[in-house]
Write a structure and sequence with these properties.
The chain contains ten helices and nine strands. It is an alpha/beta fold. It folds into two domains: about 170 residues, HUPs (Rossmann fold), CATH 3.40.50.620; about 90 residues, 2-Layer Sandwich (Pantoate--beta-alanine Ligase, Chain: A,domain 2). A six-stranded parallel sheet has the order 1-4-3-2-5-6, sandwiched between helices. Strands 7-8-9 form a three-stranded antiparallel sheet. Helix 6 packs across helix 7. The radius of gyration is 19 Å and the shape is globular. About 40% of the residues are buried. The structure holds adenosine monophosphate (AMP). The site of adenosine monophosphate has 17 residues, from helix 2 and strand 5.
């Protein structure tokens, strides 16, 4: 497995692979890998003959009061996991090498990023789109896999690829969960034992509304109240948002009529967790 530390070397290698006719698969991550990331690597592996994974905690997608410095990092462990997952090239750039100090071009998605995490994390998706576009230019993948865990991010990347004509196919990877239902996340590391138990309220509330919709409930106000009531019983939990939106446009809906994304962000103590489900009436 190769480890590439500079954008210049990554792009040189990508061009070489392209000229040699390789099918390149790509999984971008912020590292501190878990089985969710590894499932994306396995999915990508089945679609390519050279697999590239990136590990880069992208400063541009963190707000001034967010957890950039505290974000968990363990490159030695990530390296071993990548190797075991069949990754051929790990792109692990120095943060300073990715952005010029006077960088002044950014990618702004202007519709899908208005609500949900876009509303509570201003500038977040601009940072995400910009780094993903840069990574696509450096890695030049044929296929890139993103997780449904970050439902809004996934849809925004698909939109960026469509609207800016990136020559890459985006593949969706299902959310991988712990045995008790908690969506895997590098940020779960922040949770102590009692917060870890409290964090189950996210998936529990998603399961509850999925059942309610199955039994015929269509009113978003009723569904949202049920979620808020359940989460309200957990003292350590504070709702950032619970939103029901059209699965394609991310526009809020009042009734669950077509494919509806229910997405949530909840703080468990200081740790902000997200999760989502797609409701199909
Ligand atoms: P991150 O390292 O958190 O930026 O995530 C890198 C990629 O892994 C993104 O495409 C995420 O959506 C995806 N991902 C994160 N957690 C999970 C999970 N539990 N299951 C599947 N994919 C995930």
């Amino acid at each position: 497995m190769e480890i590439i530390r500079t954008p210049q070397e990554m792009q040189r290698r990508a061009l070489e692979l392209e000229r040699a006719g390789h099918m390149v698969g790509f999984v971008p991550t912020m590292g501190f890998l878990h089985d969710g990331h590894l499932s994306l690597m396995h999915l990508a592996r089945s679609r390519c003959d050279v697999l590239v994974a990136s590990i880069f905690v992208n400063p541009a997608q963190f707000g001034p009061n967010e957890d950039l410095d505290a974000y968990p990092r363990d490159f030695a462990r990530d390296e071993a996991l990548c190797e075991a997952a069949g990754v051929d090239i790990v792109f692990y750039p120095e943060p300073a090498s990715m952005y010029a100090s006077d960088a002044s071009v950014w990618i702004d998605e202007t519709r899908l990023s208005q609500g949900l995490c876009g509303a509570s994390r201003p500038g977040h998706f601009r940072g995400v789109c910009t780094v993903v576009a840069k990574l696509f230019n450096l890695v030049r993948p044929d296929v890139a896999v993103f997780g449904e865990k970050d439902a809004q991010q996934l849809r925004i990347i698909e939109r960026m690829v469509r609207d800016l004509d990136f020559p890459v196919e985006i593949v969706r990877g299902p959310t991988v969960r712990e045995a008790d239902g908690l969506a895997m996340s590098s940020r779960n590391k922040y949770l102590d034992a009692s917060q870890r138990r409290d964090a189950l309220c996210l998936k529990r509330s998603l399961d509850e509304v999925t059942d309610m919709v199955r039994q015929g409930e269509r009113q978003v106000a009723v569904l949202r109240d049920a979620m808020a009531d359940g989460i309200g019983k957990v003292a350590a939990a504070a709702i950032d948002y619970i939103e029901f939106v059209d699965d394609a446009t991310l526009v809020p809906v009042q009734l669950v009529e077509g494919r509806t994304l229910v997405a949530m962000a909840v703080k468990i103590g200081p740790t902000r967790l997200i999760d989502n489900a797609v409701l199909e009436p």
